[in-house]
Amino acid sequence: MYLRVLVVxxxxxxxxxxxxxxxxxxxxxxxxxxxxxxDELAHAGVFDAVxxxxxxxxxxxxxxxxxxxxxxxxxxxxxxxxxxxxHEKVQGIDGGADDYVSKPFRIEEVLARIRALIRRASxxxxxxxxxxxxxxxxxxxxxxxxxxxxxxTSHEYRVLAYLMHHRGRVxxxxxxxxxxxxxxxxxxxxxxxxFVARLRRKLxxxxxxxxxxxxxxxxxx
Length: 221
Fold this sequence. Notes:
It is built from 8 helices and 11 strands. A 5-stranded parallel sheet has the order 2-1-3-4-5, with helices on both faces. Strands 6-7-8-9 form a 4-stranded antiparallel sheet, covered by helices on one side. Strand 6 and strand 7 form a beta hairpin. The mean pLDDT is about 85. By secondary structure, the chain is an alpha/beta fold. Helices cover about 40% and strands about 20% of the residues. Helix 6 (about 155-165) packs across helix 8 (about 190-205). The chain is elongated, with a radius of gyration of 18 Å. About 35% of the residues are buried.
């Protein structure tokens, strides 16, 4: 549901299943099938969470994870481990992972754990994000205003989710761009203004504040 997630998995069918489910839940998703590509994406982009298989060819997942943490990359990491491989779980957590799921897994559990990791990383305790009468539920990707459902496009949803997730803080345009688009998407900074304008029409002009020269802020009312 939230914004941008990196999936690192060498089994194509599992990677496709994860990516499709995440996109359906509202995330922008980048996918890497090996450690080298994953490392390139990790250092080139900004992610809200990473799903990382430890059993990768070439550069293994644990080596990747330790390298990311040593480089100061702090986004939440959910590792995928083989069922019963308790030593993998221990090594992964010690290496800097935030949580783990054993294969085979249910996609609903992966999504729930990702939501929890992102909430924890931002200090948000509640499952729903609220700004007055505006409510965004990450579990269902549903937005309501005064109890009425508001229909949003996927990009409008990501912009709103990121701003509400960082309620009260000024978020720059470049930061929004990093979190609402996948790496291979044709990015245009002007589209952020378009999405914000659409959100104001649907949710009210005071929902998102423009802080001149700095960016946007939600949740000031």
